[in-house]
Design brief:
By secondary structure, the chain is α/β, with parallel strands linked by helices. The chain contains 13 helices and 13 strands. α7 crosses α9 and α7 packs parallel to α10.
């Protein structure tokens, strides 16, 4: 069997390699020529995907990357894994999905399966994508070609998260579409979870991420409340999670990052308005999480004041640009917001991240493109008036940080095991 996977990023590339590992011939399609050239040379550009695993499949011929969408006519199935960001008005932007649909539509054959994996609002697959595919191909979904939705469930850098082992939710436009999608994914993934429609599958992904967003907002709010009472929320969480039932631990931080949790809940919020429904709970969680960077800055002001320094004119180091520990993905990272807020107050800002040596261009924060991570050594770290730990990478030596810096704002409890001095570490 030969399939195409469109979008070779943090979702599409791991999925491509898993299908190749299962004996399926994979054509990876992407509009980024440099990315395609890197992959065909066996070079991975994602930290947690080793080049050796990629090289194996390139050399065997089970994986090849291309920018030529006309090659869709060679395959039996097309899986779409493209971004679904929010626009400047915080509204869903499904242009990557519809543009992909336009690119592949002229090359669809009778019987081809098209499966969308990009997180989106219910109705995207059977309305928006379907319309583009039908108008561009002259074929009818559910009759001439199959259409399905199967949400991605990637958890980068989690060693227990393997594509083959994560149950795959699948919904089809028709029973025949569902059967075809089940057969496809069953070649590479152990457990398939069929649902009654594309919309149910789309809603499932939103529920998963809204659940996380709301619970993170709750713990972020409790962090602030407990701090006012002189209670350490990290100690509270540690004690609470000893309960063997009815509790799931979530952890506070400086805000939300990544391509899912800060974005996906607002896809449902936007769609709900079409049905005259309000999503107050989701929107409140968004407000709380969005306010966290400002809380961190307020704590930084307090920390600097305790050392008789003002933010204006101070040098502040952000430790961790990636949105979560042990990854090189800085999309939607709250560290960018922290840097901007500090600069607005007149601070000189730098960052250190072993996984992000240089800032790549982003649509949200283009002003930081080309900025480089500073060295990790005593003279460099000690030259800053304050250090904010925004991401707790395991490879960072936090005892060294405690030895080198007199003023630390810890948003991740990263220095819990370090030997520190009274008043040196401020939790935020």
């Amino acid at each position: 069997m030969k399939i195409a996977i469109v979008g070779l990023g943090y979702v599409g590339l791991p999925l491509s390699l898993q299908f190749a590992r299962s004996g399926v011939q994979v054509l990876g399609l992407d509009i980024d020529q440099s990315k395609v050239e890197s992959l065909n040379a066996g070079r991975s550009y994602i930290k947690h995907i080793e080049s050796s695993s990629l090289t194996e499949h390139v050399q065997s011929g089970r994986f090849v990357a291309s920018t030529d969408f006309s090659r869709v006519q060679e395959v039996e199935a097309v899986i779409i894994c493209v971004p679904t960001p929010l626009n400047k008005n915080r509204e869903p932007d499904i242009s990557f999905i519809t543009e992909t649909g336009r690119n592949i539509a002229p090359w669809l054959k009778q019987g081809t399966l098209v499966a969308l994996e990009s997180t989106t609002y219910p109705g995207t697959t059977d309305e928006d994508l379907r319309g583009v595919l039908e108008s561009g191909s002259g074929l009818k979904a559910g009759v001439d070609f199959h259409l399905a939705f199967s949400p991605e469930r990637e958890d980068p850098a989690n060693p227990d998260s393997k594509v083959a082992d994560i149950p795959k939710v699948v919904g089809g436009l028709t029973p025949a579409c569902l059967a075809r999608a089940q057969a496809l994914y069953g070649k590479a993934i152990k457990t398939i979870v069929p649902v009654s429609s594309c919309r149910v599958a789309e809603a499932t992904k939103l529920l998963e991420n809204i659940f996380r967003s709301v619970n993170i907002a709750l713990i972020n709010e409790l962090k602030v409340v407990y701090a006012a009472m002189g209670i350490d929320v990290w100690e509270v969480i540690k004690a609470a999670k000893t309960k063997p039932f009815g509790f799931m631990a979530f952890y506070p931080g400086p805000g939300l990052g990544g391509h899912c949790i800060p974005i996906d809940p607002f896809y449902l919020t936007w769609k709900a308005r079409e049905f005259s429904q309000n999503t107050r709970f989701i929107e409140l969680a968004g407000e709380i999480n969005t306010a966290m960077p400002q809380h961190v800055i307020d704590r930084t002001v307090e920390a600097l004041n305790s050392h008789r320094k003002a933010v204006n004119g101070s040098r502040v180091l952000i430790v961790g640009l990636a949105y979560k520990p042990n990854v090189d993905d800085e999309r939607e990272s709250p560290s960018y917001v922290l840097m901007s807020l500090l600069k607005e107050r007149g601070a000189e800002v730098a960052y250190h991240d072993p996984y992000v040596p240089i800032v790549r261009p982003t649509r949200e924060h283009p002003q930081y493109a080309g900025m480089r991570s500073v060295n990790w050594d005593r003279p460099t770290v000690a030259s800053f008036d304050a250090v904010i730990v925004a991401t707790n990478h395991q490879v960072v030596n936090y005892q060294e940080l405690a030895d080198w810096s007199a003023c630390i704002v810890d948003t991740r409890n990263a220095l819990a095991a370090a030997t520190t001095k009274p008043g040196q570490v401020w939790k935020a």
